[in-house]
Amino acid sequence: MDVGSPSCASPDSFLRDARLFNSDLGRHYVKCNFSNRLAGRFYQNGSLERHTFRMIRLAEMQERKRQLEEELRMEERRVELLKERLGETEKMRDNAHDLIGRIVRGLALFPASVRRRQAMESFRAMRRKFHARSAIAKFLQRRYRGRTSRVYAASRRELLRRKRRDESVTAIQANVRMMIQRRRYLSKKEMRLINQSAAVILIQATVRGTNKRQMYQAEMKRQSEAAGILSECGGVTRQGLRQRSYETI
């Protein structure tokens, strides 16, 4: 027979079990504390035994319920684990399908990717050539512009040098001509002064000669008159008078 049955269980064990399960009987035993006589009467009519048996069955059923709930929770946990594993499996399957799809798409797109890569490499090569040609063209343009600028600057310097040389030559020529003209002017002025001096001298000589001549003529006239008077008076001869007049002149 079962250990928990009423035939093999003592009242003390029943009370202890009821007290452990916190049953109404345990609370009643604690509160009332019946005497042995009352307890014997309860044991004789069997009411306490039936109640204790019901409480034990209730405790067994609760324990069974707890075990079933624990098993149910374990089953639910297993179901959750299975769901998780199933989800992981489905996820792995989906990943495998995705990988297969990517592989298939990769195999389908591989020629296109190769052509695209070749096109990109060709484009990069063309771009490098374009950049190289642009750099060469820019270098040549810089050299050409630099040479043109240098030639233009040299021509400008040559023009400025020629202009300055022409201006210098013109200034020198003007100064030389001015000096020559000044010399000519001075020489002409000197000649004019000389001529003027000569003319003055000539005029003076002419005037003096004229005056002397007039004086001589007057003197000769006077002497002739005097000679006439002297000849008349028996004076000096005409030759002495002439010599005297020459000495006077």
TrEMBL record:
InterPro entries to which the protein is assigned, alphabetical: IQ_motif_EF-hand-BS, P-loop_NTPase
Classification via SUPFAM superfamilies: P-loop containing nucleoside triphosphate hydrolases
Coiled-coil segments: 58-92
Keyword Coiled coil in record: yes
UniProt keyword annotations, A-Z: Coiled coil
Keyword Coiled coil part of the UniProt annotation: yes
Domain of life: Eukaryota
Protein name as it appears in the record: Uncharacterized protein
